[in-house]
Amino acid sequence: MGEQLVVGFDLDMTLIDTTAGFASTLTLLCDELGVQLPVEELSTRLGPPLDLLLEPHLPAEDIGPAVDRFREIYPDVAVTGTPALPGVAEALAAVRRHDGRLLLVTGKHAPNARLHVEHLGLDVDLVEGGVWGGGKGEVLRRHGAHLYVGDHVHDVEGARAAGVPSVSVLTGGCDAAELRAAGTDVVLDDLTGFPAWLDGWVLDRRLAALEEQLRGHDRLLVAFSGGADSAFLLAAAVRALGADRVGAATAYSDSLPMAERGPAQEFAEQLGVAVLTPRTHEMEREGYRANAGDRCAFCKAELLETLGPLAREQGYDAVATGTNADDVRAGFRPGIAAAADRGAVTPLRDAGLTKEQVRLASRRWGLPTWDKPAAACLSSRVAYGIEITPARLARVERAEADLRRALTEAGHVVRDLRVRDLGQQARVEVDRVLVEAAGEHLGVVREAGFAEAEVDPLGFRSGSMNELLPDPERFR
């Protein structure tokens, strides 16, 4: 499911402002040794190892002992007063948001670097100290880094040595011209701009991975429900292969709302792809009708056992579903395993594309589905253990349509709305801001065929029926 993102960061003047602490420590060192050093000048050139900074100012035989003593003094003088630079917490959190790993690769003495990390609570996985310039490249390669973020030209050198993009911030002693001359790929004023840059970079990288995967197919049939994920996958396949090598298969059954069918076909036809609308018969599967926690497995089995032969007959080499990276992390998804067992490919998931990234890319491409609300099948509205029947699904669809219409006519903008079938009772889930308004229109839900109806005060949440399962693990 995509390669894990690994980002390396420098420490001094990239994550933390060590200017004052360095100067104070160096001043004490001068007093102890009885020497004079250009403390202010050296404090503006942080980045290189201390022995290189001291080399022009002390005899060679004195440098080693001076560095050792500096490191001894440093923790008591410099750690507690050293602040994080602007945007640090957000930058590290941005990497975590992409499920990334964080490396701290610095020229600073490793024990002292760790003291800063502990004092400021910096969320990093690994600290490697005492490395400089091209030496950072070896550490970055060893840990599989994809980026290196620093403030100095020698940080750029480390990124270049590792063969990864260099991101530079202007919070250290090097200006933009120096950094660009050294070969950096990106210059940011500070780390406050890093999260937005990273989001775009990760999305571009995953879109490139998606295109590469899709180009590996000769002809591809997309299982197309009309939702945001499968619509994006269909559009991506057309971009990669051309419309003549892509097909859209929308399975018609009682579980697909009638309102979804027309827009789905129109979207596919506008892309110029062949549209197939086979009938599936999941209702004939006892396990599907029984509606235990593994219902989706029977649904996906029926879908793939219908589309697989159809794909072969039509000359497609694979059937692709719109499963994304978030779906796999969502936990209880028996349908995904059933589809995989029957040979379905999952290009979005394999490229690491999340639901949010699918929507961002869809908007970038101008797809009308970029902000389409989630549209799970009608059977997902029925509480587990209650038998699935065509009449029950029709009742749910009717109740949802009538309630949405009533709220819209009352002047409300409705995004997510579900009528959960609990037997004779309906539980309405709607956008949180519409909970009270929905309570005023429950009559239309009862008129659709429910004896009782209530509004869930928690509002809409995807997968809420799984909360009622006593032991979802047994259906995995």
UniProtKB/TrEMBL annotation:
Protein name: Uncharacterized protein
Superkingdom of origin organism: Bacteria
GO MF annotation list: sulfurtransferase activity
InterPro entries registered for this protein in UniProt: HAD-like_sf, HAD_2, HAD_sf, LarE, Ni-pincer_cofactor_biosynth, PGP-like_dom2, Rossmann-like_a/b/a_fold
Species annotation: Nocardioides scoriae
Pfam families: HAD_2
SUPFAM superfamilies named among the record's database cross-references: Adenine nucleotide alpha hydrolases-like, HAD-like
Gene3D superfamilies, per database record: HAD superfamily/HAD-like (3.40.50.1000), HUPs (3.40.50.620), Putative phosphatase, domain 2 (1.10.150.240)
